[in-house]
Batch of 3 targets.
Target 1
Amino acid sequence: MTDPVRLGPRSLAALLLVSAVGAVAIGWPFLAPPSSRIASHAQDAPWLFAGLLVLLVTVLGATISESGLGPKAVAMLGVLAATGAALRPIGAGTAGIEPMFFLMVLSGRVLGPGFGFTLGSLTMFASALLTGGVGPWLPFQMLAMGWFTMGAGLLPGAGRLRGRAELVLLAVYGFVAAFAYGMTVDLAGWPLLSGTASNIAFDPDAGPAANLARFLAYSLATAMGWNLGRALCTVVLTLVLGPALLRALRRATRRAAFETAVTFDGPGA
């Protein structure tokens, strides 16, 4: 199975840049020393890092333009993003039941890491517009979902692994990645709790190890139920609906013939 979105030099560089900036923007509480003045701006972090949205849009534009996506591929990207955005509100606020995650896993698996990152980020953006969830947290959600979907495209055996073994691989990945997604998004907002809950809040005077322990306690106390619900929902839907959806996605990809160049026969053909 070929990758319909081939990352060229510019889009790959943009992806690496936004991933690096995003990793620093999210993980700065574990990177900044206790004496750093960055910690004094914890309350400003979401607004300062909202510039990630601009970088993410740049990645999307560069990927679509540089990879030479045809109208069929762009249409599939739009349909999958719209479907994921429509699925996200289902069960929202109910034990983390979010069926869109299994769609992202299967789509990333079939369509590759480049398409996966583009699809994941675009789906979160469309979902935010649909539900009115636009805010300083949106770039972090787009970045985390882009990583989540891209990771499915990087799993081994894309061209040869099929059947139950592939479903188990995708279910295990979905379970682990659902937790990783939730913790990544939680980490982006966690520094805002500084001073509100002494045992689990970010402490600008503590070192990285102490803050890591605080964050794990915070995640366990406040988000474990949602993360577990999201992970279990992803596993169940992957195992139950995965075979049919994988076949449909692969059939649609073959019919779309993403990488088939358009040629014209000469007058004498």
Note: The first helix runs from residue 9 to 31.
Target 2
Amino acid sequence: MAIAKAERLMNLALCLLGTRRPLSKRELRDSIEAYLEAGSDDSFNRMFERDKDDLRELGLVIETVENLDGEVGYRAGRDSNRLPPITLDAEEAAALGLAAKVWQQARLAGAASGALQKLRAAGLPEDVDPYEAHGALEPRIPVHEAAFEPLMLACRDRRPVLFDYRKATAARPEPRHVEPWALECWRGHWYLAGWDRDRSAERVFRLSRITGKVRSRGAKFTAEVPDVVTVRETVASWAGETADRSALIRLRTGAGYPLRAKAAQVRELGDGWDELEIPYGHGLDAWLVEFGPDVVVLEPAELRADVVDRLRAVAKG
């Protein structure tokens, strides 16, 4: 019923906005299918008056005009219903352009493009081109995981979710029941921070390890949602941003430039290998696995064991 009424209101608004002359009730009834289905004139009149009042409450200015024959007509003039122009300074326009460019290749590309077109129509300066390259670096947020969109909506609506998650050290995925807080992008990967109901603790999940569909649950959150800054710190900690010690690794010459950028010391070993001392924190084992045979962990032993476990899990499929 709500959808049918919304569609009827939209059709009435389009008729009133699109006409060059006032339309009578009879003409409006003949133009809108929902009004044609009204059982009687009284039923149509009541429906039309309610719809007209609803549109006016929503802000649509509807003019009532009486012609020479005494017949009343209705129209919504475009001048009366046009929003005031949006004025943006250079910094605001640049921020909007950058946001549109960042999401250009993500799942929100359609929404970003549509929003930009609306801003153009509302007065965004034509000389501001968010897709024009202005420097050597182009911002991009890659979103390839199917779980991103349903999780983004669940975070927005504060809805618990259920999904299958495969830990890096596990051969098979396990069901996880999570109250999602926020999505964060770190080092090219997306992470979900939230409250794991089964473990009664906060957890961080890498979206690329979510298998199958994300299912929503109608229940409310049971844990308090922390502020955005705290969530980002949690993701950074779980993803390996924080480090309180060092690790020693062998790295193939010419490979692993992100590791070299983090290294405190680099020593050439010869035979195509270098020795690096790098910061060691939570998540380093997962990062090292991404470099495959180009990396060998020397110490500490626990990091080496974690990397081996992850490689075995990958080998098992």
Note: The longest helix spans residues 2-18.
Target 3
Amino acid sequence: MRLSTVILPVRRWSEGGREVWQRAEELGFHTAYTYDHLSWRSFRDGPWFAAVPTLTAAAAATSRLRLGTLVTSPNFRHPVTLAKELISLDDLSDGRITLGIGAGGSGFDATALGQEPWTPRERADHFGEFVPLLDQLLTRDVVSYEGAHYRAHEVRNVPGCVQRPRLPFAVAATGPRGMRLAAGYGQAWVTTGDPKVSASGTAAESLEAVRSQVERLGKACADTGRDAGELEKIMLTGFTPDRPLASVDAFVDFAGAHAAAGIDEIVLHWPIPDSIFEADLAVFERIATEGLAQLQR
């Protein structure tokens, strides 16, 4: 089991932003992720900075901590420009970047460029082209592509990623099409649980839903001839009925149960006062330094 965090890009770099990423490294987190959104839900009318510049600054401010997005989506990204930014990030960080990637939703990003929001099927169709094309762009020196949604004409991406054959993809998916993409292209799979269960279910029901998702991922891997054990299973917390940040004991119980369900990495939101991610920072830091040790006793 690994423990990671997600740091929302809500702080000015000169007013605590740098220190949070450095503290994440000091606390021993495996990876520090950030959201790749133009704005997000209840944070829409407050400070919110871009993911790629934030990760660039974080790479310069740290030396060991892995960095990444949870998650990037096609809502306002194009594979050609994104690939160039990712190759640059991977170089600047000396190979410490993970791309969390998903189909996106119907929130603010979906209409920020003036377009109508895609239907769930349209999101899946875009994602189905986005991931394979991005894989090509990150592994080949020259790429041309003509698809239903994306095009690339003799795109050069030299020298490619520091990580070979490319930086890892952590594919967020709960449906069959997304899970097939995770099985085909992912080095990891990401879940936030089952939204339908989380809306009105119990913590026990949520855990069972996660266990079922892991089983379905295994079937998707089997269907593509891949060993499901090759994919890391990541749980982004904060969207289920559980309260793993309530105490160290609560975290240990949560992490242990989810490890038994097949989860390899737990991701906790860095506390943000007066928000849905409000939590006791002292407890959070104790979880970071003591939680896994207690789990392994």
Note: The chain is about 40% helix and 15% strand.
